[in-house]
Amino acid sequence: MKVIRRLLIALGVILAVIAFGxxxxxxxxxxxxxxxxxxxxxxxxxxxxxxxYSADRTVKILYAGTNSFDGSQPHVWYVIAEVRATSRADDxxxxxxxxxxPGSFYLQTREGWVYVPEGAxxxxxxxxxxxFGMAGEGQSTPSTDWAPDQPAQFCR
Length: 156
Fold this sequence. Notes:
five-stranded antiparallel beta sheet; elongated
């Protein structure tokens, strides 16, 4: 009797974890889609930069590629840009040399790439996207690879 009870408890916990993963992933992806779906992760970064920096900005994408070292989640990308402008959209000053280097996560859904903030746990969402068939096909090689001549520190 104790064995059956423990098995039922374990099964209940497993089902609860799966249900939570589905609900959380679905909710976060719906929120992300409502803020924009992009053809590429780079286009997503450019759209975010457009919203947060003054019109006189110049943008250079420094890296756009998978966030996983082994390419196991080709639908979870991290994009780093270098932005030079006179100010941010809220009129606050940029960092060193009038430059910022924002980095953001983008996840590929079947509809396209969406921005997911780091605090929403994009790796966790990406895991469940793959489990539930919500992920796009992804790409394990970067579209903008870190150049060998690129300085290790941003905004130089």
